Each structure stands twice: as C-alpha cells, then as structure tokens.
Amino acid sequence: MSNRFNTIAGWTLFGGIVALGLSSLSSHYFLADKPEPPETMGYAIAGADAGAGGAAAVAPIANRLAKADAAKGEAIFAKCKACHTIDQGAANGIGPNLWAVVGDTIGQGRGGFAFSDVLKAKAAKWDFDSLDQWLTNPKKFADGTKMSFAGLASPEDRANVILYLNSKGSNLPLPAPVAAGAAPAAGAAAPAAAVVGDAASGEKVFAKCKACHTIDQGGANGIGPNLYGIAGDAIGEGRGGFAFSDGLKAHKGNWDAATLDQWLTGPAAFASGTKMTFAGLTDAKQRADVIAYLNSKGGKLTLGAAK
C-alpha cells in the first residue's frame, strides 16, 4: 500500500514539474523579441472617440462660412426640394419659396405663406446664426413648427447650405471669422452668447448714453444717431442720414448680438477712427443688459430670456 501511494505521489509531482516547465517555456516563447509591454494595451476601434470629453466643440458659423462651398450646399439642398422652391418668382410648395430668405424676416412674407404661430412670434431676421440654429434642429428652434425635417447634424453641411441660400438673391456680406485657438486672458470679458441680458437693467446702464443718443421711435439724431431699431439694423447706414465715420461704414453687415458686444466693449477697437468718444463697458453682464434693452426698442434679434 505504501509503495502504491509513493508511486501515485511521484507521478503527481512529476506532472506538476512538467506543467511548470511548459508554462515557463510558453511565456518565453510569446515574449520573444518583446522585452517591454506594449505602449498601449488592447486594440484601437475605428471610429471610436479617443477622448473622454464628448463631441468636439462646433466652430462659430462665421468660421464655417469662410470655408463653406455653395456648390456642396446646392447638392445638399436637393433633399429640400421636395418641399421648397428657391428660384426667384417660384411658387410656394409644402414649404415657402426660399429666394432671398437670408436676411428676411422670420415667419413673414414669402408670398403669403401660412407660417406657424411659433415662427411668426420670433419677430427677428434670418441671419446666419439663426439659420444655423434652425438647420440644426427646426423643432428645437421653434417648438410647434410645421417643418418635419429633422435637421442637419453636420456643422459643415449647414454652413454649405446657408452659403448656397445666401447666393440665391440675398448676397449678404459674410461675418468675419472669429480668431481660433486663442484662450481668453485672465479677467477677459465673457462672450456675449454666454451672458443673458436683462432689458430693465440695461435701461439703467443706458442712462449714461443719453447725453449723445436718443432711443425712442422718431427721436432726432444728436451727437450720435438715434438708436431705435438699431439691433439687427445695418452697420454705419441709415439712421436718418447720420454722418457715420468711414471706419463704421467699412464694416458692413448688421448689428447682431456679437457685433454689438464687440462695439460696447471698445468702440475704438471695433472701428478705428470712429467718432464715438465712449471708452466702452468692461462688464460683460452690463453689455448684455444694454443689448437686451436696445433690442427691446424696435430691435430684430432673437435673444435668450433673462433668468
């Protein structure tokens, strides 16, 4: 019995030694010519986001328009032709004719097209920014719209379509691209879009502007122009024939929220040679409040509501 036990124990020990040897041998084989572990463990999956921060930030519409291609926009617009015409004088379809829509009033005109009440209530212009928001998600832009199109997820596709729309009867000057990659300096003003203004507070801040400007409808120009309806209006034009500086006339475009914010930050920096002696408002909230107040006085912009 003892001999049998010794035999079994011997074979068991021998089997363990063989297994250990094979394990060592296999590890040396698979690590041959690979003395260091791989720099990146696992396999990269095509199309997966390497970062953990989510989707990349979308470039401003001004920057995307600078790189946009109207021909590509026309190709993308082909899917819109089931509902829209775009040539001058063409009839409305399921949706309105879109000739010269860029810069036109939201929810009005278009040969008497029956717009939804929510679009009529916008009371603003189809500027480049509002068109970008609309094409991103029509229902989010105007909850209750009749538009069944879900939107264009690609920021570049939206820019291409907007450039194409602008080429069809509008031909508005494109906004200047925003400098990319430059982080704001410490204490720098917050972007206008990040601050929601309050018109009542803006009226108080505007009191200091009354030495040069009137703002009620029909008010006369003073040292500076009357500012009724200035928000959304053309830069350096109109205003009852006010004599604007060449620096402002050269800007073209419209007084949208971004340009008003730049102007109120530093008029001389915005338009070199301006006649405006006011140094500017360093407080971003005050600028947003003044813009909200200006917009409340006949303005045409779509601004966020104060909380």
Structure description:
- This protein is an all-alpha fold.
- Among the domains are: 107 residues, Cytochrome c-like domain (Cytochrome Bc1 Complex, Chain D, domain 2, Orthogonal Bundle); 105 residues, Cytochrome Bc1 Complex, Chain D, domain 2, CATH 1.10.760.10.
- The protein has twelve helices and no strands.
- Helix 2 packs across helix 7, helix 5 crosses helix 7 and helix 10 crosses helix 12.
Protein traits:
single chain; 307 residues; mainly alpha; Cytochrome Bc1 Complex, Chain D, domain 2; 36% helix
Structural topology:
Layout: H1 2-30, H2 61-67, H3 70-77, H4 117-120, H5 128-136, H6 138-141, H7 155-167, H8 199-206, H9 246-249, H10 257-265, H11 267-270, H12 284-296
* Helix fraction bin: 25-40%
- Mean of pLDDT: 77
Strand-pairing-aware structural class: mainly alpha
Number of strands: 0
| CATH homologous superfamily identity of the domain at 61-167 | Cytochrome c-like domain
Strand content: under 5%
**CATH topology heading of the domain at 61-167:** Cytochrome Bc1 Complex, Chain D, domain 2
Structural Rg:
32 Å
Q: At the first level of CATH, what is the class of the domain at 61-167?
A: Mainly Alpha
Condensed summary:
By secondary structure, this protein is an all-alpha fold. It has helices spanning about 1-30, 60-65, 70-75, 115-120, 130-135, 140, 155-165, 200-205, 245-250, 255-265, 265-270, 285-295.
